[in-house]
Amino acid sequence: MTDKAGVTAVPPAPRSAAGAGPGTAEPRLHGDALTLGYDKRTIATDLTVAIPDRSFTVIVGPNACGKSTLLRALARMIKPSRGHVLLDGRDISALPAKQVARTLGLLPQSSIAPDGITVADLVARGRYPHQKLLRQWSPDDERVVAASMEATGVAELADRAVDELSGGQRQRVWIAMALAQETPLLLLDEPTTFLDIAYQIEVLDLCARLHREEDRTLVAVLHDLNQATRYATHLIAMRDGRIVAEGAPAEVVTAELVEEVFHVPCRIIDDPETGTPLVIPAAPGTPLGVR
């Protein structure tokens, strides 16, 4: 269903039945009628969202629209004041921490490594959810850590201190640690922040490869709309704590949507490299509604 601006309307996601998971009609991860905020400040009310399984979902929107708040709620970093986040049909807040950590990995917006820790030691911390009282480090853990470093291109940095690395290298190390958790879902909060364009592309290419080759469900918050349309298989556009549109980028990214969400007049053309929507801002001084 579309509205008069040509934007795909967002239907409410139904509650998941207990035990829902891969191969069922319900997605593994979704939020139902969420009210989110910090202390007494409400960011979003009655927010319902479903993350398609095996998608590379990207959440976009202007600053302070609630996109990182939504991601943190999906990752159980903050608890909704109303509503529920459901993981495999169960309220995520009621699940044991290690069970969540074996299902859902998180790369937070700001990650700080302990002083002097090596790349191999940091990546190995991703195996913590799999440790038990009678099962400590194993050959399988060693294999997973090595494979995670290889997949992210940091194997040759294994003995280097993390704080000696460049920004792009550090970000790949943190992603390697998240991969070492071996979770089918991976959430990334602004993974390209503070990186120059070369490292941004490096990190997003890595995420796209992980999604494509390992069939993982990825959810990322990004600021750059053109990067979002290039890499996402599913796009969620937010403004003022609500979801304005969601769907495949080619279906939902229109000049009307960009004006509504970002207040930027623009044209949409096909990216000559990928064929995905490319947002071209209008000349300075162009009023809204004039393209």
UniProtKB/TrEMBL annotation:
Residues 15-25 have a biased composition (Low complexity). One of its GO terms (molecular function) is ATP binding. It is a peripheral membrane protein. SMART domains: AAA. Residues 29-265 form the ABC transporter domain. GO terms for biological process: iron ion transport. Residues 1-28 are annotated as: Disordered. This is ABC transporter ATP-binding protein. It comes from Yinghuangia soli.
